[in-house]
## 1
Amino acid sequence: MKKIGLYAAALPISALVYLLVVGSPSKAPEGAVKAPALAGPLSGGGRAALADYAGKVVLVDFWATWCDPCAAEIPELNALHQKLESKGFAVLGVSMDEEGDKAVLRFKMKQPISYPVILNNSERAPAGWSAPGFPTAYLIGRDGMAARRWFGAKDMAEVERAIRAVLDE
């Protein structure tokens, strides 16, 4: 019983340390932060870069096919992409699967994805980005600045409100 009590006491302390190290799960980054460069091969062929979306509002979503919360968000990300694309919004997925396109194409057979997916081919975030867990998402404004970030599962109503606010800027 003492061990259970010890683990129960350690859990809140661990959560506090996590929040102090990586920040709250959903917030604007500290100060104006230019989004780092991001580029790579696309699932299904071709290449893409965040720079290709200059002048648009972009939700960069780091995810993996084995991540259940990631998979659960994809239908809503598809819907957001389709609903707001004409207003200058795009979703840019970044697969963190080590198996690369093989894993993504297998996943897409079960769950279609309507937006481009860059293949990172590693669970380590690309240079300059932080993805302490999956899903992790960043909302990038038309000016290329990171306006918001989410670590973990997202409240899609909150995400849509944030996207609309940045689109209206």
Note: The chain has one domain: 24-167.
## 2
Amino acid sequence: MNLKEYYQKKSIPKLKKELKIKNELELPKLEKVVVSLGLSEARFDKKAAAERVESLKKICGQKPLALRAKKAISNFKIRQGQVIAYLVTLRSKRMYDFVDKLLNIILPRIRDFRGIPSYSFDKSGNLSLGIKEQISFPEIKIEEVLEMHGLGITIVTTAKDKKESIGLMKALGAVIIEEKKKKEEEKLESLEEMREKRESQTKVAINLSKEKEE
């Protein structure tokens, strides 16, 4: 039984019961998977860059899309129009096959893996993961690897919030653990929230001043 069939036969009844949703069309489901790979220092080495692209192609079974820099950044030695990353968007059968492989083969093979941390899910119901080494995927042969590199994986769902997304992934067989973010990540997030709050307050103040002038 593939993952799509498992979702239809096993996951849907579980989700109906857990989320208390009767209409199947309103239940959360997988929408797409985005796999990304940054070139980093490999952008200066054609052979290393080619190897990364080939590894992404093998892992996803699809030709990657090149992402180019919109503007030059001298501090990072990035030129405008330079390829800085690659990504692949998976849908339908390839999406289900990839998620099935990720949950049942890739993640269990990672050392000290205890489950997907709950903080990996965002408020919009999407799941973001980082794989540190490409050799975690069975398509990559370690003897052919020039250097290790990581991958970014984002599983986009139709879930309305974090709770629905976690419920969906659990219903698909994922192991989810309640885990807090590291202090450094929490600090960055709180700083971002403070910045957004200040910007919002500034906009309100500007609007009030305009109203007074009028």
Note: DSSP finds five helices and seven strands in the chain.
## 3
Amino acid sequence: MARKYNFIYGELIKGDDDLVGHVAYSIYKSKKVAFIQDFLDKKGTEAVENDLDLFHQTSLQHLDSYRLEAQKILHTYTQTTLSEYASSIEKQSADKVAAARKGYTDKLKTTIERFKPSFLSGVFQSLIGSIAFTFFLGFLLIVAFGAIHGTDGLLNLFKEIFFNATGSPQPPL
């Protein structure tokens, strides 16, 4: 007896590049294998062409559900693949940003270190500042004393400090 073909392949697959159709056909084949195994388990014999006719007739009514299930499978696969790829790109980007940030931070630290004064330079600056402040404070005291006692009092103070009573110069303290 010649074997009958059911043309399900042509119904599900619209062309060589019909990925949904190919996945739908594999779903159909999976269900057919399950039907044959179930038949063998229940009846104890292998299914023959006449036994498969009912399965083929039922399958013709479920072609749209096979394609819908195939679309869901492909959608899930695509979403998972894209999600993993996006995560990979995000990690690579984060790694590149971290490396660039570290490079810029190191370069900035090096630049700052070049312009940072040394300890001795800081001590010298403090010494100059202290001397300048002392002279400024002395000047303010002289101005304040002159404002209170007038120019005559100021001249007398200078005479007492720098000259003794005889008028000869006195060494500074």
Note: The chain has a mean pLDDT of 86.
## 4
Amino acid sequence: MRIIWISFLTCLLVAGGAAIAAAKSCGAHISYEHGHDGCTNIDFKNGTLVIKHENRYLETVEITSEYELYVNGDHVETTDEQKVLLREFYRGTEEIVGYATHLGWEGAKIGLEGARLGVEAVGNLFKLAFTSYDSEDFERDIECEASKIEAKAARLEDEAEVVEEMADDLEYVARKLRREIPRLRELDWF
């Protein structure tokens, strides 16, 4: 029976590692909902920030790593002051994507720890049935491990609040960009 559990856990670890490796190769992508209008998709492709609205496939905003602006494939001339805003928006988005990616990986690791604890709990049920290990031992061990996972989740939640504050700051920069750049103002979703 022990060999079966070890094989099962090994399969879980291998599958989890393969899933993480596959996701890392896809690049950074974030979607966020805003009201009843749908979602905005944000990608970084070869150093260019690409922003698309899910319901308006032909409308695209791109900001290059040199802070050049393209709307629907057309280059938009910008002033030095507008470039400063574009740089702030690009870097802020880059930072949020980095944090969000980190939070996603950490969340996935916490989820795997929870799954591991579930498997461990099932294994401990067998210990209850066939050894001197009793229900108090079982409860103590599971609660101890669960509290560690809960603490990690609480820390992750605190980090997520920081990202939320960063997103609020970025929304402020986006409003300034809309106000300053007529082509962006024309897009009612940016």
Note: The beta strands are 29-33, 39-45, 48-53, 56-63, 69-71, 74-76.
